[in-house]
């Protein structure tokens, strides 16, 4: 009874149109003739698709472990500190910063003639021992992915630190203290007590990290536009560009493919651990 | 003999204490450095908003492709001025239109999310019905789908309902977003089952339990969902761009990207106006936010 209004909206705006798209993915846009899996093979053979898929996977493979590792390390350091709340608040601040604001400061900092290159050049000129620094054009070379990963970390570290801290707080303190009394070192306590205790949080945090990866597209698009440097051309660029070019048949096929992949991943995760 | 032992013991203890304190200071240092690194770029904003155009132009000329060398930045402007705020608040009527568009959209979405999301979250938390696991799994998958994947499906349904290019095209799908349901659900699961059981035994109806037990006890989860929602919808970019053609209906978050670096001072003034409400809500709801986010992480 309670679920009915919400679920009918989900049906209307998410599920039904999704099935409609699934149906259209087998039709040719315009005259609606049945073309079987032609749209799917067109997607899979598309060069832009292969590039975008590779970039997206690489971004996830680099971004998610880095984010989870850094935030876990910080939360392990933070958890017994008196200053914890202050520091966590400071780390959370980027959540409140609108994407456009972030993008503006980023542009000033990382332009080829921007502030960061200026500082680095100055330092390398002052210190004769260092090799001469050549200004890097961050957004138009393969450095673009580094910029994207760094801004992703900047924005989301605080979020994940809170999640890890919650996971750590849920561990029973007595076990750890007992182990410490029995002479277990830092590393042993981590290996035998903390790490197994966090395995539940691990899945949730991994899932949310992936969600944040998808959300970070907004900043990427605002910094680099619809046709960015080829290392940061993601699946979302592809979908959005096909949308603007009204290439709905291929887009439908790609939509179905991506949803199925995500569904599959979720099913596997749920099989491992219920979230 | 005895005194020598105590000296050793004291020295060992002092060494242990010193080592422990050193580790603590190291931890504080690392974490403070991380926090400072994260906050540093934000320090550019207030100075930029108060900087006069000539100064901005001079120090940013290289970024605008008009000069050699590198851009620098002054954290504190040489000649502070309120010019940009004057231009924005007095001379740009478009700003108010977009500002109120954003306020209206955000308010409508959040109100709608509470109206339909709260009961849904309660249903998942309080009742054991057939297909509950399946449905909840579905909600989680929907929550994870990037907007661009839902772009075509939503476009089709908005066309069919003749909502394309109306504010409702952004608002309605967002209301039925499943992410707030997920967070509020996590908040509700923190409630002890015995409490609802006791209320039920005392003859409270399901509605009464929802209003008098669920809502007050699930408050933190609800607040967290609202704060997270505000930060998200205050900042909408892709949805209005895809579904609203008319600029007069755009939110503020699409106004800023149109201003180029050559008007950086003005852009920073707009940034301040966008940032202040977000920071305000953030400061108000921070405790709830931290606790609410924490619920997501703990497996129940």
Task: Give a quick summary of the entry.
The complex is a heterodimer of chains A (275) and B (300). Chain A is an all-alpha fold and 275 residues long.
Please describe what this structure looks like.
The complex is a heterodimer of chains A (275) and B (300). Chain A has a domain at 59-233: MetI-like fold, CATH 1.10.3720. In chain A, 73% of the residues lie in helices and 0% in strands. Chain A contains 13 helices and no strands. The radius of gyration of chain A is 23 Å and the shape is globular. The mean pLDDT of chain A is 81. Classes of the chains: A mainly alpha (275), B mainly alpha (300). Chains A and B meet through helix 1, helix 3, helix 4, helix 5 and helix 6 of A and helix 1, helix 5, helix 6, helix 7 and helix 8 of B.
What is the topological layout?
The complex is a heterodimer of chains A (275) and B (300).
Chain A: H1 4-24, H2 38-45, H3 47-78, H4 84-92, H5 99-110, H6 115-126, H7 143-169, H8 173-181, H9 186-197, H10 199-215, H11 217-224, H12 235-244, H13 248-272
Helix pairs in contact in A: 1-13, 2-13, 3-7, 3-10, 3-12, 4-7, 5-11, 7-10, 8-9
Chain B: H1 2-39, H2 44-49, H3 53-60, H4 83-89, H5 93-126, H6 132-144, H7 147-160, H8 167-175, H9 179-189, H10 193-201, H11 206-217, H12 219-233, H13 238-243, H14 264-297
Helix pairs in contact in B: 4-14, 5-8, 5-9, 5-12, 9-12, 9-14, 10-11, 12-14
What would you say the CATH architecture of the domain at 59-233 in chain A is? Orthogonal Bundle
The number of strands of chain A is: 0
The tally of helices of chain A reads 13
Pair with the most extensive interface?
Answer: A-B, 98 and 94 residues
Gross morphology of chain B is: flat
Number of domains of chain B: 3
Total DSSP E strands of chain B: 0
Provide the helix percentage of chain A. Answer: over 70%
**Major sheet of chain B, described briefly?**
none
- The name of the CATH superfamily of the largest domain in chain B reads MetI-like
Largest sheet of chain A: none
CATH class annotation of the domain at 59-233 in chain A: Mainly Alpha
Q: Assign an overall shape of chain A.
A: globular
What is the CA-atom radius of gyration of chain B, in angstroms? 26 Å
- Written as H for each helix and E for each strand, in order along the chain, the element string of chain B is HHHHHHHHHHHHHH
Secondary-structure class of chain A: mainly alpha
CA distance, first residue to last residue of chain A:
24 Å
């Amino acid at each position: 009874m309670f679920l009915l209004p919400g679920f009918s909206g989900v049906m209307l705006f998410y599920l039904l149109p999704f099935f409609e798209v699934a149906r259209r993915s087998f039709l040719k846009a315009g005259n609606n003739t049945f073309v079987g899996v032609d749209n799917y093979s067109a997607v899979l053979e598309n060069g832009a698709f292969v590039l975008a898929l590779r970039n997206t996977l690489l971004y996830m493979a680099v971004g998610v472990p880095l984010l989870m590792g850094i935030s876990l390390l910080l939360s392990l350091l933070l958890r017994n500190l008196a200053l914890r709340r202050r520091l966590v608040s400071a780390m959370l601040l980027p959540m409140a910063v609108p994407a456009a604001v972030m993008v503006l400061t980023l542009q000033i900092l990382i332009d080829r003639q921007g502030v960061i290159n200026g500082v680095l050049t100055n330092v390398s000129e002052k210190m004769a021992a260092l090799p001469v620094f050549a200004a890097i054009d961050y957004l138009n070379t393969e450095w673009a992915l580094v910029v994207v990963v760094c801004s992703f970390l900047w924005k989301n570290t605080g979020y994940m630190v809170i999640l890890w801290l919650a996971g750590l707080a849920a561990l029973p303190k007595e076990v750890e203290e007992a182990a410490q009394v029995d002479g277990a070192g830092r590393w042993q306590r981590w290996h035998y007590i903390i790490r197994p205790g966090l395995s539940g949080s691990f899945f949730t945090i991994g899932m949310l990290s992936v969600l944040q990866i998808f959300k970070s597209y907004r900043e990427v698009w605002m910094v680099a536009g619809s046709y960015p440097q080829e290392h940061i051309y993601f699946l979302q660029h592809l979908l959005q560009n096909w949308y603007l070019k009204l290439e709905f048949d291929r887009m439908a096929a790609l939509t179905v493919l991506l949803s199925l992949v995500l569904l599959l991943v979720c099913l596997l995760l749920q099989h491992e651990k219920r979230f | 003999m005895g005194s020598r032992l105590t000296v050793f013991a004291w020295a060992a203890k002092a060494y242990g204490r010193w080592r422990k304190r050193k580790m603590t200071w190291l931890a504080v240092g690392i974490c403070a450095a991380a926090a400072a690194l994260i906050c540093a770029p934000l320090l550019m904003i207030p100075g930029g908003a108060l900087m006069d155009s000539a100064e901005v132009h001079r120090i940013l000329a290289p970024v605008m492709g008009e000069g050699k060398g590198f851009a620098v930045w002054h954290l504190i402007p040489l000649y502070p001025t309120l010019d940009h705020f004057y231009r924005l608040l007095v001379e740009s009527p478009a700003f108010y239109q977009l500002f109120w568009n954003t306020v209206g959209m955000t308010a409508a979405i959040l109100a709608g999310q509470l109206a339909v999301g709260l009961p849904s979250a309660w249903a998942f938390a309080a009742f054991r019905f057939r297909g509950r696991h399946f449905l909840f799994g579905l909600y989680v998958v929907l929550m994870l789908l990037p907007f661009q994947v839902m772009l075509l499906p939503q476009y089709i349904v908005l066309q069919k309902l003749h909502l394309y290019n109306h504010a409702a095209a952004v608002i309605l799908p967002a209301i039925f977003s499943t992410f707030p349901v997920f967070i509020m659900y996590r908040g509700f699961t923190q409630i002890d089952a015995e409490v609802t059981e006791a209320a039920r035994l005392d003859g409270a109806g399901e509605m009464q339990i929802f209003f008098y037990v669920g809502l007050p006890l699930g408050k933190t989860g609800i607040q967290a969902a609202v704060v997270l929602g505000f930060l998200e919808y205050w900042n909408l970019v892709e949805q209005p761009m895809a579904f609203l053609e008319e600029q007069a209906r755009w939110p503020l978050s699409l106004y800023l990207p149109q201003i180029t670096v050559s008007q950086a001072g003005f852009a920073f003034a707009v940034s301040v106006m966008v940032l202040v409400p977000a920071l305000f809500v953030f400061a108000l709801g921070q405790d709830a936010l931290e606790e609410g986010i924490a619920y997501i992480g703990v497996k129940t």
